[in-house]
Specification:
heterodimer; A: 1341 residues; alpha+beta; 7 domains; B: Purple Acid Phosphatase, chain A, domain 2; OB fold (Dihydrolipoamide Acetyltransferase, E2P); 3 domains; 6-stranded mixed beta sheet; Hint_dom_N (chain A)
């Protein structure tokens, strides 16, 4: 690696750190030093998390030669031999190996290896042989599917080394797996739910028994009380390993089983192929992936089996771009563009425009292959879409500007253009190579192999290798025997032999006009469209400008005569693929070889949109300075400072830090003594005997006399007034410097040390907002890029040279803005929004240094170009480790571009799955369990290594919420997420009988004096009041037991109830859930208004901001509170220590001919690994950072800046646009899209609301009391007020008309239409009075 | 295939879209050339008719010179003479003349004194339907509808209980001094267990609610385990010293009086009680049903004059996700067409009554009205009487309560295993009779459509209570009421397999309506099985 580069980064980091250290010494931060240390290496982490001595050393040994997966398998031998870990028993050896494998694969940063694996046991098969069982627990979730699956493989490997037999399941055990996995999926939800036949197949073949502790409440109803299964409830850990590990990651495991002689899982192939139905015979048919292996039997072209999986759970408003393997869909081209890495797919910017702007850089799409999802990147060196314009002309659009010009005149999109995927993507997914489209890269290799000299041609200025003149192309083909150049090769494989004959006749009957165009009968247009030949339509004829290579290919001469007939063609050509594919016939008549132009079409649909926005707490705050109730709903510090309070003007009583000055003994809340200016320390006092207790090394302070935990806080009366004015004076600002300064109500940290208020004043002045740890953050979708042009980054060559870039990718001196340079691994590109935000942050930091720390400013930026070269912290979602990055430039795309190596891991926190949340569906409110709400919307979510899954929503879901002033309102939900649960949760119980279990730092709403404040759940105390949800459209499942504590209005506009108890409980679940609510960030859960959870995204922070302002002391002192905070930082990325997927990026500048040929065999990616180079191959060499690429692109921000999904308004607008686009795309059956929307969106809504109606609660309109059933009194039993329904007809029938319209308009199946009809009948039957029906109203519609 | 057996004649006619009286079929079977006779009968039948009558066949045969004289064989389908009651099962006389279809068990084809009767008297069946929501669904989904349905429930069920206790309204109880005795008829609003393990029941009347405490060590505590919310009970007890709560001494359910004695038909006549055909499902037990339909043409089935179908005639659409993958008939109209065809194979002189179930194309919320006209049009006039779910069907003076049985799931889930389980559905049915309500618990599994009246209240005690839905066979006698759950005609589905439910397929319980008062169930109930 580039040592100078890292040294430079580190030296700048050191400089900055030195400045920050000096500042922190001077300030009154909780700690007098910078609180972000540097990270240790992975091997250490693994050993320490496992507590097995010797692992770290062995891991370091193995790291040099092996991948982490391979190392895990190598370690199995060590454990068995006893060279690592001194385990005697066989079970302990296996257990050690399994835990180590999981630890290695999770880089030693999660608890899965310890908490996720319960135990390993050796049991006895019915035939007397022994087998191994592995018991998993819920936290195995955080290991991720690959590590889960590999843990089974490791156990199996260990078992064979120890000569223990395989597990031979009993029939009822097999069926139990099937039922239980299904049950778990229903109850908790799985990212991937195997079909029953699939589960059965896996269960029958697994050589290791998977088991584990019960995690669910629901019990299986069928296969109960089995001898070898301890529980009748679902075993969550087992189900995860089974479904998300084995079933989902089968291709990945297969890679490793192949490398091991001892372990043989031949059934994995059947599992991958899906050919496990009903035994063996059936297998043949569906074994479509490998019909190329059929050898000599030439039945048809090699094609991967179409897969519909990616279309599952289609979302309304997110369009389908192509049905599985359909002609007209994306055409697979192999190669890696410079802005291409793992899980990305390149499309032409013109395509992005012509799909009505639904695609932008960073938009995620779900794809048919090779992976499940990919981030879209714009690449303009591949082919764009082919469209038919309103005048009938067919054109390929290879330019985004041209696409914009013609957009309104596009009648049909005949072809979506090319879809560039790199070989590494197939490696990563272990997907067999799909036949390559014929492209110039391949042609070039063939041309060279056939004796041509592509380099010489490329140097000839009169010839464009990628776009030669027709005559040149023909000349090349005829003289060298190389297949015809792809530019003139058309999609003959999409044409049947009969249509080829029609075409041939049309050419015979055709003519050449005076302009030299080929004139054909108009009927030929349809065939030309299939072939993707550009042409123009006239009244009765079509004309083709470039026709010579085309007619030559079809065996015609320039006089349009041919010397062949279909009847004369060899049988094999005529009957190839049952006559559906004319390529053999064309080969037979062409005077030169002809390749299949686009054999692989890749189906795709839109996933989630891209993201670029600042991160704020909810609601946003400027400072972590507490003002209690005094600041009003806005938490306005200025108001608090002037508020008339019982404690005195501007004074509030709060639980705050008890700190003591070592010099003068003054007691204060501050980190610096207000009297003598010395540092203070936290004073832990025993709550019983009030002695000061010195905390031990672990930071625990226990009074040995009373055996009580000593407390670092006390109830303090704080003068906000004095602090505020003192702070203003100190930084020399006036109140006019900012519009509003927002503080927090209370502190959630252990010691409750407030942030110096001065920081808040300066943040408010610069309009930036503090996150929970004191930092300022900006979120962006990550996209990879390995080479950049200064020009596209809005920087000039001097700036880039100043960063140490001296040569371009070819090694030429860097002189021009448009030269390409290889991006260094920690250099990042900011979105425009991020750059603006960092500029504001820098201005804040400078003021902070000058006005608060009384030092020189650090940044002194005047324009955004000044940001170039500055260091930032990058954090991927939910990490606890920041990575140092350096700004190299800017992009208008709403994404953060960085090197594929620049990344990390993630985490989150939230609601207990059984929490009932109130949501609005169809204008009415219903209550659902949050797990249901989230699971049903986790549309193939992004998943991270910690297991959190997130799906962004489009506003089709909204929830009752509470505005800052306590006014009930309704806000859309922008995202749903599911997270691995922490070990502990907090249960809050209220006098109204409603209780809630959430993660400890979950935001709750506390009401006092009419203010609605956000506090962490663990901070709520008995006696606090929380708002009850009783607004006009809120329903909750429980009923208020009114006797004890009647909800009473408490100053605000909603009634409140008293918290009776909060308790910390051991987590009994594996996952918690969250919704992200727009604007108010509040929602209703179990009948209580609460805050949502904090959302997390990939983000950047300005280095100096992090160094100066981050403090662990601000973080909630609960498990989970330290997630998403930069507890450590990595100053340099060690490519060997990062996730494997980043290594499966190929780094070649061209793919060899053998590769393209192997794709036609649909070879496994492993079969060509010797001739291919991926990043992994260069690890540990001096070319480790050398990322070559096959495709350039003019601008990494080409195409729309934002997906139409984000710019279109209502849900219905989006859906209509989606369906209309479907109609225009040749590759899309709009009826199927409509069908799927109805299936996944409308029908569940209609069914759900109809069901909800017939078993609904009712509610008093006056006092808000809820009844499970209408009271027989008819009126409210409490207040005598009118009672009304909570689910009305409107919410039930809202979508019925739209659904029926969509079903009719877009041709849904009769089955679906009938379902809707039956629903319509049901709705009428329930809501219409038979005795006074408005007869025949339907007849007039 | 030779056409001499009545069953084959019936299916030949059914294929042509006709069904026919048993006598007509016998006549056709006896013709020298049955095939030709059928053709003629079908060709000459007046247009618009779908049922071939005996008259018609006689005319056809008469007009044809090929018709032979009837051989004088007695014709099945005759009403038995009054003297034969009770003797038929053991009647030793077995005809050999038509031995081909004699399937054992005392099949009596020759009955002394049996003479052909005109079909007109045959079809003059006595079926009376009450308690059917069809055409009277006046609810429009308003609060008032919910209120009226629960008030109606309370009023009608409390009437059943008022005689047993001296009801004090809840507000009167509130005013009563501590220590006094009290009694209350109320709807169960809430059931909670207290920290001490006692039960606290909130009972509700039209004035308010009153809390009842059932101490765990009292005998009546076991009754609490049977309680469901929203059922109506009566409680007697003592008011606590502070006057805040009543300690329960006795809990009364509306129940069926022990003195109940069922009505009977005054002639020998039987009804076949089946349910849950699920036509259109790949698992529909077509063969078993064919055997059943064929059997109905045998002499053994001579007295079966009624066929009652307890819902889920078809598999329906959209009942569960991806259901289309398990359908043999994906179009719901075609499902009903097929079902109607199957009914044509049933002798035309058997009266068929059908209620919908949760798979049928009607609203799921109960009470469920009969099919809409779009579906009714599929059935010919001669086909079944399609009524709502539930419905009270009175045949030959015997009152049969037909209910599909969705609430059984909830009863089984809520009550302890020994009181209700899937293997003995009659126990759950008995619970419904005890509560005198078909679906007491609101807000859970069971969906209700609010109507002016509560159609689910069991006002009058039925003589027979017939359900389906759970696909398990079960029968019993509860205080003299015959309870029958009639299993199903659908083999195990993949869903059922996944939860290890083993359905009982192809059973037709045959009930002797004239013998319901016998002490031994065997005397009035025969379970016919037609499965493989």
């Amino acid at each position: 690696m580039d040592e100078a580069y890292f040294e430079r980064l580190e030296s700048e980091l050191d400089d900055a750190r030195a400045v920050a250290e000096r500042a922190r010494e001077r300030g009154a931060d909780p700690k007098p030093e910078v609180e972000i240390p540097t990270a240790r290496d992975m091997a250490d982490r693994v050993e320490s998390i496992l507590g097995i001595e010797g692992v770290a050393e062995r891991v370091r040994d193995l790291e040099d030669d092996y991948s982490r997966e391979e190392a895990a398998l190598e370690l199995v031998g060590d454990f068995v031999d006893g060279t690592v870990g001194s385990f005697d028993s066989r079970t302990a050896k296996i257990e050690g190996a399994v835990r180590t494998a999981v630890a290695l694969l999770t880089e030693g940063v999660v608890a899965a290896p310890i908490e996720g694996i319960d135990r390993v046991e050796i049991q006895t098969n019915d035939d007397g042989t022994e087998f191994v069982s592995v018991a998993y627990a819920g936290p195995i979730r955080s290991a991720g599917g690959t590590a889960q699956a590999l843990s089974v493989l490791v156990a199996d490997y260990a078992r064979t080394l120890l000569d223990i037999d395989r597990y031979k399941p009993r029939d009822d055990e097999v069926q139990r797996y099937v039922e239980e996995v299904g049950l778990y999926d229903d109850e908790t939800g799985l990212q991937y739910s195997p079909k029953d036949a699939e589960s059965e197949f896996i269960a029958e073949h697994l050589p290791i028994m998977l088991t584990g502790e019960a995690t669910g409440d629901e019990e299986v109803s069928g296969y109960r009380d089995l001898e070898r299964v301890d529980t009748n409830a679902s075993r969550g850990g087992m189900c995860l390993v089974f479904a998300e590990g084995i079933a989902l990651k089968a291709p990945k495991i297969q890679r490793y089983t192949r490398e091991l002689d001892e372990v043989d899982w031949p059934w994995l192939q059947d599992l991958i192929d899906g050919s496990f139905h009903d035994g063996s015979d059936d297998g043949e048919e569906s074994d479509g992936e490998s019909n190329a292996d059929d050898g000599d039997v030439d039945t048809g072209p090699p094609r991967p089996e179409p897969s519909k999986k990616y279309l599952r759970d289609l979302i309304a408003g997110r369009p389908v771009f192509g049905h599985p393997s359909s002609p007209g869909g994306f055409r697979l081209r192999y190669g890696r563009a410079r802005n291409h890495g793992f899980a990305t797919a390149a499309v032409h910017p013109a395509t992005m425009v012509l799909v009505e702007d639904f695609l932008a850089a960073g938009t995620q799409i779900k794809t048919e292959r090779p992976g499940k999802a990919a981030g879209v990147v714009p690449v303009d060196t591949i082919e764009g879409p082919t469209v038919r314009l309103a005048n009938g002309s067919v054109r390929r659009i290879d330019d985004a500007d041209r696409a914009r010009e013609v957009r309104n005149g596009v009648e049909a999109i005949l072809d979506l253009g090319e879809y560039l995927v790199n070989y590494g993507e197939f490696v990563e997914n272990n997907h067999p190579l799909a036949p390559a489209g014929y492209t110039v890269e391949w042609w070039r290799e063939e041309f060279a192999a056939g004796g041509g000299d592509p380099d010489a041609v490329a140097d000839d200025p009169s010839v464009d290798l990628a776009d030669p003149a027709p005559e040149t192309a023909i000349e090349w083909a005829e003289s060298t025997g190389t297949p015809l150049h792809p530019q003139y090769t058309y999609c003959y494989h999409d044409l049947g032999v009969d249509r080829l004959e029609r075409l041939a006749r049309a050419i015979e009957a055709g003519d050449i006009d005076e302009e030299g165009r080929l004139v054909l009968d108009r009927d030929a247009a349809e065939i030309l469209e299939v072939l993707l030949i550009e042409h123009d339509q006239h009244d009765d004829r079509v004309t083709v400008d470039t026709w010579r290579p085309f007619v030559r290919t079809l065996g015609f001469d320039d006089a349009l005569t041919r010397d062949w007939t279909v009847a004369e063609l060899p049988d094999a050509a005529r009957t190839y693929d049952d006559g559906e594919n004319a390529i053999r016939a064309v080969e037979a008549v062409a005077p030169f070889p002809v390749r299949e132009r686009a054999p692989t079409r890749i189906g795709a649909r839109m996933g989630r949109p891209e993201k670029s926005e600042e991160r704020e707490l909810s609601p946003a705050v400027h400072t972590l300075f507490p003002i209690g109730e005094a600041g009003g709903n806005q938490r306005n510090v200025t108001d608090a400072a002037g508020a008339d309070r019982p404690e005195g003007q501007g004074r509030v009583s709060l639980e705050l830090a008890r700190r003591v000055c070592g010099s003068c003994g003054t007691e204060t809340t501050r980190a610096r003594c207000p009297d003598c200016g010395d540092r203070t320390t936290v004073d832990y006092r025993c709550p019983d005997c009030e002695r000061s207790i010195e905390p031990d090394e672990a930071g625990r302070a226990t009074c040995d006399r009373c055996e009580m935990e000593a407390e670092p806080t006390q109830l303090t009366t704080l003068s906000v007034h004095d602090r505020y004015h003192e702070a203003l004076d100190r930084v020399g600002e006036r109140e006019t410097a900012f519009d509003i300064l927002k503080g927090v109500k209370g502190l959630s940290s252990a010691t409750k040390t407030p942030e110096p208020l001065e920081k808040g004043i300066l943040r408010a002045k610069h309009d930036v907002s503090a996150f929970k740890d004191g930092t300022i953050r900006y979120d962006m979708t990550d996209l990879p890029v390995t080479a950049v042009r200064p020009s596209e980054l809005d920087v000039d060559v001097q700036q880039v040279r100043a960063l140490g870039y001296e040569t371009d990718i070819h090694g030429d001196p860097l002189r021009h803005d448009d030269q390409l340079i290889e991006l260094r691994t920690q250099d990042i590109v900011l979105s425009d929004g991020a750059a603006d935000h960092l500029l504001q942050t820098a201005a804040f930091v400078d003021d902070l240094l000058e006005q608060y720390y009384e030092m020189d400013p650090y940044y002194e930026f005047s324009e955004r170009a000044d940001l170039v070269g500055e260091l930032v912290f990058g954090m991927a979602p939910h990490t606890s480790a920041a990575v140092v990055g350096r700004v190299i430039g800017f992009t208008s795309a709403a994404v953060g571009y960085a090197h594929p190596y620049f990344h990390a891991a993630k985490r989150r926190n939230c609601f207990h799955p059984e929490t009932t949340v109130t949501i609005c569906e169809g204008g009415e409110t219903v209550h659902r369990s949050i797990s249901r709400v989230v699971e049903s919307r986790l549309d193939d979510p992004r998943t991270d290594d910690f297991g959190a899954k997130v799906t962004d929503l489009d506003g089709d879901l909204s929830v009752p919420s509470l505005a800052d002033d306590g006014t009930p309102t309704t806000r859309p939900v922008t995202a749903v997420a599911k997270h691995p649960a922490p070990d502990h949760l907090v249960t809050v119980e209220t006098a109204a009988g409603r209780s809630l279990t959430v993660t400890p730092d979950h935001a709750m709403v506390r009401v006092a004096d009419g203010d609605f404040d956000r506090v962490a759940a663990h901070e709520l105390r008995a006696g606090d009041r929380v708002p009850l949800a009783v607004g006009p459209d809120v329903a909750v499942a429980d009923s208020v037991s009114a006797a004890e504590d009647r909800p009473v209005p408490d100053g605000g506009s909603v009634p409140t109830t008293r918290v009776t108890e909060t308790s910390i409980v051991a987590s009994d679940v594996e996952a918690t859930y969250s919704l992200t609510v727009a604007d108010t960030h509040r929602m209703v859960a179990n009948g209580l208004h609460v805050g949502q959870c904090d959302g997390d995204e990939d983000c950047v922070m300005l280095l100096m901001d992090g160094l100066l302002n981050f403090s662990r002391q601000f973080l909630p002192d609960q498990r989970g509170g330290r997630m998403d905070a930069p507890l450590v930082m990595s100053s340099r990325i060690d490519p060997t220590e990062i996730d494997d997927e980043a290594h499966n990026v190929d780094v070649m500048d061209r793919y060899p001919l053998e590769f393209y040929e192997a794709t036609r065999e649909m070879a496994d990616p492993a079969d060509v690994e010797d001739i291919m180079t991926i990043a992994e191959d260069r690890l540990g060499t001096d070319r480790a950072a050398d990322f070559e690429f096959t495709h350039d692109t003019r601008d990494i921000a080409a195409g729309p800046d934002l997906s139409a999904y984000k710019t279109l308004g209502s849900m219905e607008d989006k859906m209509d646009a989606q369906l209309e686009l479907g109609r225009r795309l040749r590759a899309v059956e709009e009826s199927d899209v409509a069908e799927r929307i109805i299936e996944s969106h409308f029908l569940p809504d209609l069914h759900g609301n109809l069901r909800a109606f017939s078993r609904q609660d009712v509610r008093c309109l006056d006092c808000g009391r809820k009844y499970r059933r209408v009271p027989l009194t008819g009126v409210c039993r409490e207040c005598g007020g009118d009672v009304n329904l909570t689910v009305h007809e409107g919410s039930v029938s809202k979508y019925i008309d739209t659904s029926i319209r969509v079903a009719e308009e877009y041709g849904a199946r009769e089955y679906t239409k009938q379902r809707l009809r039956v629903l319509e009948w049901s709705i009428e039957s329930v809501f219409e009075n038979d005795h006074n029906k408005q007869s025949g109203i339907a007849d007039f519609m | 295939m030779p056409l001499e057996t009545p069953a084959r004649i019936a299916s030949a006619l059914a294929e042509r879209g006709f069904n026919a009286d048993r006598t007509a079929i016998t006549l056709l079977a006896d013709a020298t050339d049955p095939e030709a006779a059928i053709l003629r009968a079908v060709e000459t039948v007046p247009s618009g008719t779908t049922k071939i009558t005996t008259d018609h066949v006689e005319r056809v045969l008469d007009s044809s010179q090929t018709a032979t004289e009837s051989d004088g064989r007695p014709r099945p389908g005759d009403p038995p003479s009054s003297g034969s009651t009770g003797a038929t099962e053991s009647d030793p006389s077995v005809s050999t003349a038509s031995g081909e279809n004699s399937t054992g068990q005392g099949a009596s084809t020759a009955r002394p004194g049996a003479t052909p009767t005109s079909p007109s008297t045959q079809s003059e069946s006595s079926v009376e339907i009450t308690g059917d929501i069809t055409g009277d669904s006046t609810g429009s989904g308003e609060y008032a509808d919910f209120l009226s349905v629960f008030r109606d429930r309370y009023e009608r069920l409390s009437k059943q209980l008022r005689g047993r206790v001296t009801h004090r309204p809840t507000d009167a109880l509130d005013a009563m001094p501590g220590g006094s005795d009290g009694a209350l008829v109320g709807m169960v609003a809430e059931i909670d267990s207290t920290r001490g393990g006692h039960w606290r029941i909130e009972l509700e009347d039209t004035n308010g609610t009153y809390p009842i405490l059932v101490l765990k060590d009292r005998d009546i505590a076991s009754a609490v385990e049977e309680l469901l919310t929203d059922e109506v009970i009566a409680v007697e007890g003592t008011i606590s010293d502070d006057g805040e709560i009543m300690f329960a001494d006795a809990i009364h359910f509306p129940d069926v009086p022990r003195t109940f004695s069922p009505s009977t038909a005054d002639r020998e006549v039987s009804a076949a009680l089946v349910s849950d055909l699920h036509v259109g499902s790949q698992e529909f037990a077509a063969k078993a049903w064919e055997r059943f339909a064929d059997w109905l043409h045998t002499d053994e089935a001579d007295h079966v004059e009624y066929l009652l179908i307890g819902g889920d005639a078809v598999e329906g659409i959209g009942v569960y996700p991806d259901q289309d993958e398990e359908l043999s008939i994906v179009d719901v109209y075609d499902q009903y067409e097929r079902f109607a065809e199957l009914l044509k194979r049933v002798p035309g002189d058997i009266e068929v009554v059908l209620i919908p179930g949760n798979h049928d194309a009607v609203r799921l919320a109960e009470p469920q009205p009969a099919f809409r006209d779009e579906l009714l049009d599929i059935f010919d006039a001669t086909d079944p009487r399609i009524v709502g779910n539930p419905a009270r069907v009175t045949v030959e003076g015997v009152s049969i309560l037909m209910y599909h049985g969705v609430s059984l799931d909830e009863i089984i889930a809520e009550l302890p295993d020994e009181r209700a389980n899937y293997d003995e559905p009659q126990k759950a049915m008995a619970q419904l009779l005890r509560k005198r309500h078909l679906a007491p618990q609101f807000g859970g599994h069971t969906r209700i459509a609010p109507e002016e009246r509560d159609y689910m209240v069991i006002d009058e005690v039925p003589d027979v209570f017939h359900t389906g839905h759970v696909h398990k066979l079960g029968y019993g006698s509860y205080h003299g009421v015959l309870t029958i759950n009639s299993a199903c005609w659908q083999h195990q589905t993949s869903f059922q397999e996944s939860v290890n439910i083993d359905p009982e397929v192809g059973y037709a319980p045959i009930v002797r309506l004239d013998r319901l008062d016998a002490t031994d169930v065997g005397e009035y109930l025969t379970i016919r099985t037609f499965s493989d």
